[in-house]
Q: What sequence folds into this?
């Protein structure tokens, strides 16, 4: 990484490839070389289209797992529900902020699911991307709000305030 020569300017595939080869010969890792060559060319890396699309089947699997796991219920879900019931009773419940709380729960559930069923090479974001976890969180929020309306928020956790 010593004799750093400036990278060539240009957006052509040949120029970008030459810059990548040059940086790798200088000892840079491939990922860094690709990033620097694309940045020099002013080209943005294409986003993975599957990372922005929700997978309804995976979201349903995640929701079923989270709803049936007792540890997740005791450690996370009960606290979220109690917090949201308190907010409903005080009149400060926010539909959008509730989704954020359920997204955190969906992330915890996804991590636990991957520890239990995934291989070490699988990342949580690969199996349950952000859009899929958000879809599961919307399901959790919908179920919670329907239960709160059906049971009445007073009977869910008793009078909290």
A:
């Amino acid at each position: 990484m010593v004799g750093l020569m400036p990278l060539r300017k240009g957006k052509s595939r040949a120029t970008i490839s030459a810059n990548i080869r040059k940086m790798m010969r200088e000892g840079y890792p491939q990922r860094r070389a690709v990033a620097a060559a694309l940045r020099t060319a002013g080209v943005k890396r294409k986003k993975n289209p599957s990372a922005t699309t929700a997978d309804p089947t995976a979201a349903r699997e995640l929701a079923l797992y989270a709803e049936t796991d007792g540890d997740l219920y005791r450690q996370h879900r009960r606290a979220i529900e109690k917090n949201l019931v308190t907010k409903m009773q005080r009149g400060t419940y926010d539909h959008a902020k509730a989704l954020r709380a359920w997204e955190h729960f969906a992330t915890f559930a996804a991590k636990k699911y991957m520890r239990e069923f995934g291989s070490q090479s699988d990342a949580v974001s690969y199996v349950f991307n952000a859009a899929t976890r958000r879809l599961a969180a919307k399901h959790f929020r919908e179920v919670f709000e329907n239960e709160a309306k059906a049971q009445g928020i007073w009977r869910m956790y008793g009078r909290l305030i």
